[in-house]
Design brief:
This protein has 162 residues and is an alpha+beta fold. It has helices at 59-64, 85-94, 96-127, 134-150; strands at 6-10, 15-17, 25-31, 34-38, 46-51, 56-57, 71-74, 78-84. Strands 1-8-3-6 form a four-stranded antiparallel beta sheet. Strands 2-7-4-5 form a four-stranded antiparallel beta sheet, with no helix packed on it. A hairpin with a 7-residue loop joins β4 and β5.
Length: 162
C-alpha cells in the first residue's frame, strides 16, 4: 500500500460511520469485526450484518459524496485502514483485489435492496384485504415498481440511456 495509509483504531462499541452523515473515507478491516445497522439505537434498529478481516465499507460516501445509509459499529476492538479520496485510486491500482472487494460489496447491496423490495411487494400483496379490488392491488404494485427504479432515474450511470 501507499505511504499515506491511515490506520485507525476503534474500541468495542465505538461508532465508525453514522447513518445519515457524509463520510469521505472508506475503510478496510485489518483486524476485528464491525456490525452494520439501519436505525442504530432506535426502536426500529436492524442489524444488516457483521464484517470481518479484509472486508471494506464506507465506499458509498467516498464514491458518491452521499450520506451513509448505515451505521457501522465496532463489535470488537477494530483496526482499520482508512482510505481517503486522494488515496483511493492508488489503493485500487496497487492491489486489484481491493477493487473486486468493493464491487462485490456494492453488488451485494444492490441485490439485497432489490430482494427486499420484492419481499415488501409480496408482504403487501398478502396483507391486503381480500375485498380490496384488483385495481388497488395493481396501483400498489406500480408504486413499488416506481420506487424500485426511481433511484436510477437521472443517475449519472444511466444518463446516456435517457
Amino acid at each position: 500500500m501507499t505511504d499515506r495509509t491511515d490506520i485507525r483504531l476503534f474500541k468495542e462499541g465505538e461508532i465508525v460511520i453514522s447513518e445519515g452523515r457524509t463520510n469521505k473515507e472508506m475503510y478496510k478491516i485489518v483486524s476485528g469485526k464491525a456490525a452494520v445497522y439501519f436505525d442504530y439505537k432506535k426502536s426500529s434498529e436492524y442489524l444488516v450484518g457483521v464484517l470481518g478481516d479484509t472486508r471494506c465499507f464506507g465506499e458509498i460516501g467516498l464514491l458518491t459524496g452521499k450520506p451513509s445509509p448505515f451505521t457501522v459499529v465496532a463489535v470488537t476492538d477494530l483496526m482499520l485502514l482508512g482510505i481517503g479520496e486522494d488515496d483511493f485510486e492508488l489503493f485500487v491500482s496497487e492491489e486489484p483485489r481491493n477493487a473486486v472487494d468493493i464491487m462485490r460489496n456494492l453488488a451485494m447491496m444492490v441485490f439485497t435492496m432489490g430482494f427486499n423490495v420484492n419481499m415488501l411487494n409480496d408482504e403487501l400483496t398478502k396483507t391486503i384485504d381480500e375485498k380490496t379490488d384488483a385495481e388497488r392491488v395493481e396501483a400498489i404494485n406500480r408504486s413499488i415498481l416506481k420506487y424500485r427504479v426511481s433511484g436510477l432515474l437521472g443517475s449519472p450511470y444511466f444518463s446516456d440511456l435517457s
